[in-house]
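Entry for zinc ion complex. Fields follow.
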Amino acid sequence: MTLLEDFLSGETDRVLHATWEVLGSRDPDLVDPLVPHAARIRRATEKLDLGGLIRPNSANVDFALTKLEHRGQGLCWCEDYPGPLHWDPEREQKAGNVRILSTSEPGWSMTYECACTVCGRVFDVEQGDHHFTWWRWRPRGVKRGT
Ligand SMILES: [Zn+2]
């Protein structure tokens, strides 16, 4: 159970390694064993200074923990799209996770309409560029507070 050990290690490099493993995986064998430990991981990591250049790395740990919580609640993988800004629709389509239904005129600023290949939920995705390219995912038909 080395990823759990990484999360609980108190060492920045190991915590971030485990974070990216979780964020990048849809493998139940990797993700599911961590689900019961989400609260413990949160306690072990919330006081760490994890650094980060443009955005704090602790935000990514939060996204990884939220993913574990979603998994524990039996929600679809696509529940993780809103929030983080690193989900590239093209890459997700290549991975077979979404289908791009339509796009606006291609450019730095553009929008995508994507459907989850697992549950069929449709997302409006806005692509923008500020220091790095980002994507904001909004599930269709759900009002989100700010
Ligand atoms: Zn889905």
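NOTE: The pocket of zinc ion is lined by residues 76, 78, 116, 118-119, 121 (CB under 6 Å).
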